[in-house]
Amino acid sequence: MNSIFADLPTTVFEVMSVLAREKQAINLGQGFPDDPGPEDVRRKAAEAVMDGYNQYPSMMGLPELRTAIAEHYKRFQNIDLDAGREVMVTSGATEAIAGAIFGAIEPGDEVVLFQPTYDAYLPLVRRAGGVAKFVTLRPPHWTFSEADLAAAFSPRTRAVVFNNPLNPSGVVYAREQLELLARFCARFDAIAICDEVWEHVIFDGREHVSMLNIPSMRERVIKIGSAGKIFSLTGWKVGLVAAAPDILKVIAKSHQFLTFTTPPNLQAAVAYGLGKDEAYFKTMRAAYQRSRDRFCAGLSALGFPVIPSQGTYFVNVDIAPLGFHDDVAFCHRLVENFGVAAIPVSAFYAENHVRNVVRFCFAKHDATLDAGLARLENAARKSS
Ligand code: GLN
Question: Is 262 in the pocket of ligand 1 (CB under 6 A)?
């Protein structure tokens, strides 16, 4: 069997969720909300499955969803997209990432990845024959400099994969960082595969700046989004790609043999949801921000050093001041002895690992967060 996949460990999200079920732990690992998601959107999906069309939709996505995506990004990010030539629906953002990488890379091309790297990127780049070059981000600011990019980009660079807001770090990059990266993409004629699935899950009045909105990048960005993240319906696996026509044409060819298409009832419901008024999105953000604040206050009160979160469902804790230096061992101890599942952030590094950071998901009901905090109380003490 192919060695890239044969030698790959099972994704850390699955490992920790299986352990959480086994140990009946509170699962603050894999990022999914307790909340069932907006009722009207779920009802639309149910109606569409009963009354709608359940055969193959177009491989590019339902026309009504492609139009809704273009309108949504015009309204929220002031991006002009041609729904018929620049928008495609995929079965989740992970499929979109695979399609983009397989569509963009030739064997031997270099691909710049930022670590912590969402765990799907590297095996997909390698399977496409690409050679990964890493920019290493470190807590608490997870930022990158011109020198970092200069060390990673080369004339062989074909693409960069950029996740903003960044999972697992919870950082939201501002326009200046995007412009810095854009200068390198232009200098080395590289494509930017921009995983922006957390674009709506940002806090403290921040604005999401899409890479598609950096004028020099309009023709070289593959923007990836996720209805699962926009509507807190992570199991739906409805993703999207927005890119200039010449780029999208090629990604469509790789998508046609990955999943080809995506359940039409879910697509119809997402099309409806994307049209919801601004109040829905504001309320959603405010609710997650409240959960973040409640959980972070609880962690701080227990003596866990919190690394601030600006977006995503996640907050990180620095375990070094607690006397721990192995995040994997810490997370195993946490789930096995204390009944709380979390994610060791070293799982997102391929080299020069950061081993003192643990990620918690706060997209949970108050009762879940409070129960988690109660169990964490003892775990902070090294001797216990
Ligand atoms: N994106 C989710 C997370 O970061 C995990 C998705 C998955 O398990 N494939 O927790």
Answer: no
